[in-house]
Amino acid sequence: MLNTHICALVALICVISTAAVIHVSGYEGRDVNVSCSYGEGYESYEKYLCRNDCGNSDVLVKTTEAKKNKYSIYDDKKRRVFTTTLSDLSSVDAGKYWCGVTRTGKDTYTEVRLEVEPGQAVQITARVRLRVFIVPAVLLLILIFALVMYKYKCYKVQGMFDIQIHALNSLHSQANTHIYIYIYIYIYIYIYIYIYIYIYI
User: Fold this and answer.
1) Which subcellular locations apply to this protein (predicted)?
2) For 144, which of 12, 19, 176, 196 is 20 to 30 Å away at the CA?
3) From CA 99, how far away is CA 84, in angstroms rounded?
4) Phi-psi category of 105—alpha, beta or left, where left has phi over 0 and alpha has psi -120 to 50?
């Protein structure tokens, strides 16, 4: 079909590189896209991604089936680019691949080198999530503190006209107590959210 046994024996003759080597990198547990272009006039031809000598058993996925196991392929005929998606990457996925276009006679190939790195993307995502949670928590703490201070000042102004000095001092003490309570509560919430995200996300 794609390569005969003769092609498997003389792979260097059958493999025709149509472009420079494509270098792709991805992270373990994530997906990666491998995009390969092809020449004008091959829009209706079958495309595929393969490994090793690209024999029939080495073909991972082809446009006539669109999806196979962890591989899926899409051919954008307008841009003359077909893209293969490799899902749930692992270290064994690293290595050399070939983007192939089926032709009469010799198929055309473009070499692809895939590097798979440890799950740094997950760590980056966790950091982003951490910031997303921490920033609103800090803003909420500042807002609560501002509201408490505003309420306290309102009580203080009202007390200058309506209550005696003793009552004003008592209110002042009570307001300070409330302020400290609010601050302690929201600091505790902030620390709890930080620890939870750091450990579980």
Assistant:
1) Membrane
2) 196
3) 9
4) left
What is the Cβ-side half-sphere exposure of residue 112, based on CA atoms within 13 angstroms? Answer: 27
Residue 155 per-residue DSSP state: H
User: Could you state, in order of their start, the residue ranges of all structural domains in the chain?
Assistant: 5-118, 121-200
* DSSP state string for 80-107: TEEEEEE-S--GGG-EEEEEEE--SSSP
Cβ atoms of residues 14 and 106 within 8 Å: yes
> In the block, which residue shows the tokens 């293969």?
84
**What is 5-118's CATH number?**
2.60.40.10
